[in-house]
Amino acid sequence: MDSDRATRLLHKAREARLAGDRMPVAPRAEISASWERVLRSGIDPEQSTESVLLDLDEIEHRRRSSALGEVMPLLGEGLASITDAAQQIMVVTDAEGRVLWREGNPGVLRRADGICLAEGAAWSEAVTGTNAIGTALAGRAPVQVHSSEHFVRSLHTWTCAAAPVRDPRDGRMIGIVDISGPASTFHPTTLALVGSVARLAESEIRTRHLIAIDRLRSVAAPLLARLGGRAMAVDAQGWLAAVTGMPPVDRLPLPKSLQPGRVWLPSLGMCRVEPLLSGWLVQVADGPSDGPPRRVVLDLSRPRGPVVNVVGPVGTWTQRLSPRHAELLYALALHREGRTASELAEDIFGDATRTVTVRAEISRMRRHLAEVLAHRPYRFGEGVEVEVIHPEHPGDLLPRSTAPVVVGARTTE
Known about the structure:
- By secondary structure, this protein is an alpha+beta fold.
- 39% of the residues lie in helices and 22% in strands.
- It has helices at residues 3-19, 29-41, 56-65, 68-85, 106-114, 125-128, 132-139, 190-226, 323-334, 341-349, 355-369, 404-412; strands spanning 89-94, 99-104, 143-146, 158-166, 173-182, 231-235, 240-244, 261-265, 269-276, 279-284, 295-299, 307-312, 315-320, 373-374, 379-380, 385-389.
- Helix 4 packs antiparallel against helix 8 and helix 10 crosses helix 11.
């Protein structure tokens, strides 16, 4: 099928979906899912793509706060020259879909101003409908959106490909790298190109992180040698630089807003924390602790991924969850009396024999959540209050999950 005919069929499919009629051809799965999200959000397909731009001070603040700022020269070398020659532009956003940088063909940059693809503009799905930036953010995966695949009609003359960039230090999505241009510049290899550059950016961030860890270690090692008891030096994300008096760990879970002083850490108990270079000196306190956590909030409403918030006696800390760990905690939250390994295997895989996998995943979770998870059977500990925050629409509950316990909840809530 030639590209013009495919574009016409896709246009007819979009018009049919908007009218509630049967589509003559099914769009790609990621596009169909995006259209459904956008329809639920109430976006008008005839609306403008204009948004209120961030002011210059806010743009600069976000640039300085983003790890992507450190690798923009690398991104420019990898994409900007190519996009200029190909009549396209490179766009880099933060994790909210706000445009922080753009480079490329001058003529296309001027055309981009006409659709508000400008620095400071908002390009999440909730604002602009189906587009590569917003849909990559929502799906947390690379995506190419061409012509009529865009939800808003004024974007049908554009083609774009985008890939998420994750911070290798903690797995957080920190932004999007996008290539956009007139629909006539569409090329099927563009998505592979932008994905490769995103991975290159992540590799550069990782390299810079290892250099910073080495620098912190050189300062911390002599200091720890003079300390008694258990202590460690970690960077701002909790990655270990040096340790004494205790087994090493790859990473220490830290509260979201850590302050110097006494703080309860889930894997160590009560500690004394002091700033050290670009990280923290953590000394495990002797004597009785102030007690275990009292409350757990499992937040499944966040479009950028599930998290668990643990409220301890002296503060709150947050742990991002893998999809599998989110499924397991959700199952345990539904069954406060506890679940055996075989029951959890049935909940997650629909196969009660997969107990080895369940036990391994629970063991991994307990490295960070040992104070709130009990076993025999697996459950939240006694006296721990558990709250689950669901997404606004039941169908958005862990949208990529196929676990029976989740699939069933989507249809019964």
